[in-house]
Design brief:
single chain; 5-stranded parallel beta sheet; FAD/NAD(P)-binding domain
Length: 311
Amino acid sequence: MCYDVVIIGAGPGGLTAGIYARSKMMNTLILDSGRVGGQLVSLYPEKGIHNYPGFETIQARKLSDKLYAQAESMGCIIRENEKVNEINNGDGELLVVTAKGTYHAKSVVVAIGMGSFKPKRMGCPGEDEFEGRGVSYILPAKEDLVGKRVTMFGGGNSAIDMALIADSVTDTTIVHRRPEFRADESTVNSLKNSAIRTVMSANLVSINGTDKVESVTVEQDGREIVIPTDLAVINIGISADLEDLKHWGLELNEDGLVKVGFDMSTNRPGIFACGDVVSYPGKYKQITTACGEATTAIFMAYKFAKKPYWA
């Protein structure tokens, strides 16, 4: 079988691409090297999303579930844990090669986000020792936080949103290494109106405990402060692994991201890209940005694959 489009990546961009592809009746296959949902489920499943149109607030995991359900209901074939190794040129088609087989496609949309990503680490004493015993990189379910003293590290939207979730059920502190947060103003205002303690311009010195985390030590203005803690949640960004792109023959910029035209086209005919993996002047990484780019990428993939008379 030759698919009209193979979409690589099942995060918000990839799932949106699938939804739009099926609306144009394209035979659609979505492949993901991990789980459906991308960063929504891997990094901040409990986080509230406040700026996705149509929802005043929606939990990241629930947004992923809704996109997944819609794409599947429309007829997308979705396969998890299937990593794409190569995208080769065939006879008037593209060959998408994984460890499980080779898929024939008339077009391809690359929507892998930040690739095989993992949370950035603080690199302080106690971090490795207590991982899984009071050190976490995602926020556990809210019911599991009750009665635990939580200290969050980070200054972006995700870190503050997680702290706000924790604050609704338990004693919460947020530590940021800079004097100001980089999160959106509305998110910072929510923090200011909460009971969360903020410790600014502070660096994590160590995570302390015996069998589990009991406290964290931070340095602020030349003095050390010990904060009693049961759960230290570190949310300072992700380390991306986009090495796969080098094997797919795509033109990359100095940051290793895919160069695209205004129509989300890449240097390879029939291959389009969208989401965090692409770069262009003025790019602003948001879920809605990825979804908009996915719409354009699929429209162009449709024109390439179907060659309608009006194109």
